DNA sequence: TTGTGTGCAAAAGCTTTGCATGTTG
DNA sequence: CAACATGCAAAGCTTTTGCACACAA
């Protein structure tokens, strides 16, 4: 239920691996095969996912990992900015890979769950201005627009979500 | 750990009550004392709160209610726009009363948990433009800026909220 | 009186934790 | 070989659900 583009980008994954490796080295973390397996699995995915879905998917992979390791590794990947963390109104944390994708925000259809990404430079302006005005050092942000997608959405309905 | 203003606004509460009443009537919902008690409790509060905190607080009130009723009523109040729902990065749903406050967004300090509110008209422009471009009917949004508050923050620490 | 709403407690879903075992550096 | 990471299962939290009872309309 996502607007996606393309599959596994080997180059991107390789660069992400380097970043992850460097991060682990400079933080004295162990470069375990589990951690790399999780990174790879994430880079095979296209869109948003949650920890449980990733765990389930990992079970079918060459290198199985436990739930605890999935959660642990997701945290590391967030810390080194290889993935971004979201909460689209529900109590499930969603992730998406962020390296190699330009900064973007989300438009979520409340009827069918579709997530569309968009960019707008005005966000950056707002961040700069508000950071200065309110004396904050702003590190990141989330802008989520909620609504109903006209057109395609009705077709997707009928399978009664919500 | 919030930037707040003032306490119980009788007038505002009374108007909110009317809106809630009208909502319940037009949806054939029962106007129970529990529902009004929850609305009142919310309008006594100044800032953001979660369901559990509200429930705990209600226990000391004249009209006790159960957790289930709290959750049920919060949903109704969101539906009629008397309160707004947020998730500031954690897996707890936070609410705040929204009637009588002008539309605003949030700046969250990752160190001390402080939440500052701000307004920026550019958000509205983005909503309008993106809705049109992507063929969505946008109903609401959340813009959360995360960062560290310079100055006041260090002083505020030590009492460890979060 | 009728059926919606409530209370209570149990269940469910996501995430974290504890501990024994494995493995990296 | 010592410390950190993993796996597993149990525990923790927030939220939802089921069922009997209460009460608004």
What are the SSEs and their pairings?
The structure is a homodimer of 162-residue chains.
Chain A: H1 10-26, H2 33-44, E1 49-50, H3 51-59, H4 67-79, E2 83-86, E3 94-97, E4 105-109, E5 115-118, H5 121-134, E6 136-149, H6 152-156
Parallel strand pairs in A: 4-6
Antiparallel strand pairs in A: 1-3, 2-3, 4-5
Chain A binds a DNA duplex (25 and 25 nucleotides) through helix 4.
Would you write up a description of this structure?
Two copies of one chain form a homodimer. By secondary structure, chain A is an alpha+beta fold. The first copy, chain A, is built from six helices and six strands, in the order ααβααββββαβα. In chain A, strands 1-3-2 form a three-stranded antiparallel beta sheet. In chain A, a hairpin with a 5-residue loop joins strand 4 (105-109) and strand 5. In chain A, helix 3 packs across helix 4 (67-79). Chain A is globular and about 40 Å long. The A-B interface holds A 85, 87, 89, 91-93, 107, 109-110, 116, 118, 120, 122-123, 125-127, 129-131, 133-151 and B 85, 87, 89, 91-93, 107, 109-110, 116, 118, 120, 122-123, 125-127, 129-131, 133-151. Strand 6 of chain A pairs antiparallel with strand 6 of chain B, so a sheet runs across the interface. The first copy, chain A, binds a DNA duplex (25 and 25 nucleotides) through helix 4.
User: Biggest sheet of chain A, in brief?
Assistant: 3 strands, antiparallel
Percentage of residues in DSSP E strands of chain A: 15-25%
* Structure classification of chain A: alpha+beta
* Helix-strand sequence of chain A: HHEHHEEEEHEH
Let me know the number of strands of chain A. Answer: 6
Largest interface: A-B, 39 and 39 residues
Main-sheet strand order of chain A equals: 1-3-2
Oligomeric category: homodimer
Q: Which range best describes the helical content of chain A: under 10%, 10-25%, 25-40%, 40-55%, 55-70% or over 70%?
A: 40-55%
Radius of gyration of chain A: 18 Å
């Amino acid at each position: 239920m996502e607007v996606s583009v393309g599959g596994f980008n080997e180059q991107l994954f390789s660069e992400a691996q380097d970043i992850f490796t460097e991060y682990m080295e400079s933080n004295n973390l162990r470069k375990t095969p589990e951690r790399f397996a999780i990174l790879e699995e994430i880079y095979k995915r296209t869109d948003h996912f949650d920890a449980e879905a990733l765990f389930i998917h990992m079970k079918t992979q060459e290198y199985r990992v436990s739930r605890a390791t999935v959660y642990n590794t997701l945290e590391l990947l967030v810390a080194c900015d290889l993935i971004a963390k979201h909460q689209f109104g529900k109590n499930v944390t969603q992730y998406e890979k962020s390296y190699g994708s330009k900064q973007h925000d989300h438009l979520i259809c409340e009827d069918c769950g579709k997530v569309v990404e968009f960019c707008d430079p005005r966000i950056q302006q707002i961040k700069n201005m508000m950071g200065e005005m309110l004396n904050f050092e702003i590190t990141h942000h989330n802008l989520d627009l909620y609504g109903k997608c006209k057109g395609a959405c009705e077709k997707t309905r009928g399978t009664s979500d919500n």
